[in-house]
Amino acid sequence: MLTFDVQIFTVRNLGRGRKPYQLRWRVGPEVHSRTYATTTLADGRRSELKTAMRTGEQFDTVSGLPASEMRQLGQLNWYQHARAYAEMKWPQSSAKSRMARADALATITPALTIDNKGAPSPVVLRRALSCWAFNFSERRQEPSAEILAALAWIEKKAVGMPLLEDADTVRSALNALALRMDGKPAAATTTRRKRMVFNNALRYALEKKRLTGNPLQFIDWSPPEIDDEIDWRHVPNPTQAAQLIAASASLGVRGLHLTAFFGCMYYAAMRPAEVTDLREADCTLPEQGWGELVLAGSSPRVSSIWTDDGKSYEERGLKRRARKTTRPIPIPPELVRLLRQHIDKFGVGPEGRVFRASQGGHLLSKEYSAVWKKARTKALSAKQAKTQFAEVPYSLRHAGVSLWLASGVDPVEAARRAGHSVAVLYRFYAKVLDGKSDQANEKIEQALKEARQSTESPQR
């Protein structure tokens, strides 16, 4: 039990033994004592305890020690604590979260070392940390001698947890997570994500009483600002999107196999992981008119060492939604036609999945990205193809949402169909929404004009 009720007595000479000088102090109801060989040693220890009292530290009634000294007894170092934190989070985390957390901790940990004497190469150390130290999969391969040596080095050199209360130590970790391995600045979103992992690990240290406070609260360091707004110079308009989708159909069987896939990303603004999880049972595809897709999950691609079942993808619920949550999306006749044609020609997979790899199995991002690259070359001018215009398939999702907003769809409904919050919609699609401000002003002005006319008209 910790308490502020502390009383320190004067040093007394017992006049016997090799350590005749006794220091006594009371913590709560308990009296503690230590003996020393010289009065200088006893007075020095008394001064340390008095200093702890003056700085407002609590003392432990059982051991009699100040709280700061209690933390240092049997204290883990940062590497050991980070491993304990990652292992604690592992069972309840998605595969993507496990991988992202390991990457963040592997970036931070090399910066939290006593020195770099005998350090392994940065590449080897990063691989050892991300793929072994912070990965708790049973399917990991046995580490090589090089990896084992790197892990032994970092465990020996990692700073003790009390040093995390030093501002310069914490700042070195923050500076590390803001850089890529080649020394160039990391993307703003990456920096913020890794800082969040660092903050959560420090909060876990508070929970386990390995720190007295979160040092990030007192460090003058800010992550780079994120420009969330989309650069609309790179987003295709409806005609361009249709041309890009049609171009994939002209690239042989492999491209034709993905035409409806790209159509889902544009006409339904679906994420790639949601499209790969689409089942035939989720689709209402009438012969004429609008249809509907009821999204129930996603299958993001991830290395098998991060999943529980060893698959190269993870079956999970919709992004940031409870596992059983569904999201119905009305789809226009263009997408209904593409999906009907796709199912008629290619059928569905064993689990009812609409989309598979051209050779069977789960559709991988590298396959649809390769087809998209060829479709851009075919549909765009040589000059346009060299730019970032529609550079990745995800551009179709941005184009789909912007089409809804430009067509006058209510932002709340557009956000619901896209599967994110209204706040995210306004943050990412601000320019599209700003473009409608004149229309909104005209409607307000018309309403005010009608009100004025009603007020000014003579009473009958």
Using DSSP, what is the number of strands? 9
Which residues form runs of ≥5 with pLDDT under 50? none
Note the main sheet. 4 strands, antiparallel
Strand percent estimate: 5-15%
- The structure class reads alpha+beta
- State the CATH class of the largest domain: Mainly Alpha
Order of helices and strands: EEEEEHEHHHHHHHHHHHEEEHHHHHHHH
CATH architecture of the largest domain: Orthogonal Bundle
Average pLDDT taken over every residue:
86
CATH superfamily of the largest domain: Intergrase catalytic core
Cα(first) to Cα(last) distance is 84 Å
Radius of gyration equals 31 Å
Oligomer: single chain
User: Portion of residues in helices?
Assistant: 40-55%
CATH topology of the largest domain: hpI Integrase, Chain A
- Please state the overall shape, judged from the principal axes of the Cα atoms: elongated
Figure out the total of helices: 20
Structural domain tally: 3
Write the topology of this structure.
Elements: E1 2-3, E2 6-8, E3 12-13, E4 21-27, E5 30-36, H1 39-54, E6 59-60, H2 67-72, H3 78-89, H4 95-108, H5 122-133, H6 145-157, H7 167-177, H8 188-207, H9 238-249, H10 252-256, H11 259-267, H12 272-276, E7 283-284, E8 291-295, E9 327-331, H13 333-346, H14 365-379, H15 382-385, H16 395-406, H17 411-418, H18 422-428, H19 430-434, H20 437-456
Antiparallel strand pairs: 1-6, 2-4, 3-4, 4-5, 7-8, 8-9
